[in-house]
Design goal:
Blueprint lengths: L3 H6 L7 H26 L21 H36 L5 H23 L1 E3 L6 E3 L3 H22 L19
Antiparallel strand pairs: 1-2
Helix pairs in contact: 2-3, 3-4, 4-5
Length: 184
């Protein structure tokens, strides 16, 4: 994997842990930068933009409509960024799975679960809001299905983190290509 195209845009071949982690760092930095750019473009408040000022009791009352608007917009921005970085992330993870002699199908399951969680978040911000006991603040309340899907995503994500990021690949050539440590 000598070029960025092969690293981020193909699922063929194998990569070593070092290439995986460097790719993850590059994608992470790019996602954070893109998040700041999209937040500015779409007007997502980043710091304390939802309080309406001191109330009669000296506290800071919340502007529920401003909070909901910010949550909705940030949910869509997060979904867009997730979609942009989904395939490059999958390409890295699949090539690491190839390095261990596995197909990488579980990576696609992980991405589907992640996208379902993102879609649920965006949907919940539009339809499933409940008043909390703390000062009348509206918050999305997760359903049982969301909790189960979230826990499944967490477990699969931790598994993939360990096998892609920390476990050594199979030595020598395998059905997915030559050993990335010997190809220089």
């Amino acid at each position: 994997m000598d070029n960025l195209h092969d690293l981020f845009l193909t699922t063929q071949g194998r990569i070593a842990r070092r290439q995986f982690w460097l790719g993850i760092v590059v994608l992470g930095v790019a996602a954070v930068i893109m998040g700041f750019i999209f937040a500015a473009l779409f007007g997502v408040p980043m710091f304390n933009a939802v309080a309406t000022g001191p109330g009669s009791d000296g506290g800071m009352p919340f502007d529920n409509e401003a909070i909901l608007g910010a949550l909705r917009t940030s949910g869509w921005v997060t979904l867009i960024i997730t979609l942009i970085f989904a395939f490059p992330t999958a390409a890295l993870m699949i090539k690491r799975r190839h390095d261990r002699g596995r197909s990488g199908r579980e990576v696609w399951a992980y991405l589907v679960i992640g996208l379902l969680i993102q879609l649920y978040l965006v949907q919940a911000l539009a339809f499933n809001l409940q008043m909390t006991a703390d000062g009348g603040l509206y918050m999305p309340m997760p359903s049982v299905i969301n909790v189960v899907v979230g826990l499944a995503g967490l477990c699969l994500g931790l598994y993939l983190l360990v096998v892609c990021g920390f476990l050594k690949g199979s030595a020598g050539e395998n059905s997915y290509g030559p050993d990335p440590h010997k190809v220089r």
